[in-house]
Amino acid sequence: MKAADVMTRRVITIHDDAPVGEAARLMLQDGISGLPVVDHAGKLVGIVTEGDLLRRVEAGTEIRRPHWLELMMDPGVLAAEYVRAHGRQVSEIMTRSVITVAEDAELEGIVLVMEKLGVKRVVVTRGEGLVGIVSRSNLLQALAKIGPEAGPTPASDDSIRQRILAEMEA
After folding, report:
1. SS (H, E, C) the chain
2. Hey, which end of the chain has fewer CB within 10 Å, N or C?
3. H or E element: which one contains 101?
4. Predicted confidence (pLDDT) per residue in 124-152, tens digit
5. Cα–Cα distance between 152 and 98 in angstroms, integer?
6. 47 vs 38, 72, 138, CA distance in Å?
């Protein structure tokens, strides 16, 4: 199976200059956990996910450390955390490095990328255009459609042994 076989084609996006609250409302309204971010030309510039919205000053969930520990930290890290917690526009809190795959990418490769990079979704592109998104949910839906009849299930230990020996000989 390929990305095009399982992807969600109606991708809800958000503009990079949209307010953070709008991203949260869109995700809740549509029951999704991530939104590709586009500029006004429609170019993919990032992705905003539930994870990007966890550490927010409005909710009192921003990262708090003892002052002495912050004195030993890289000021760049502290500044980036501050912007993420206090940012008002999607462009200030989004993840800029978006994991993309082509629509003809094999599912096995997509799963490997998702596992290796610890992401829950990949954006599907055709050239530079966004054509879909593959999430963990899409992969589960594909698995549910396949069902148990998709492949032979050995009935006994002996039949398993025979299959292994046949594979080893090949």
Report:
1. CEHHHHCECCCCCEECCCEHHHHHHHHHHHCCCEEEEECCCCCEEEEEEHHHHCCCCCCCCCCCCCHHHHHCCCHHHHHHHHHHHHCCEHHHHCECCCCEEECCCEHHHHHHHHHHHCCCEEEEEECCEEEEEEEHHHHHHHHHHHCHHHCCCCCCHHHHHHHHHHHHHC
2. C
3. strand 100-102
4. 999 888 999 999 999 988 888 876 655 55
5. 38
6. 8, 31, 18
Are 139 and 6 in contact by the 8 Å Cβ rule? The answer is yes
| pTM across the whole model | 0.74
Q: pLDDT per residue over 8-55, tens digit each?
A: 999 999 999 999 999 999 999 999 999 999 999 989 999 999 988 886
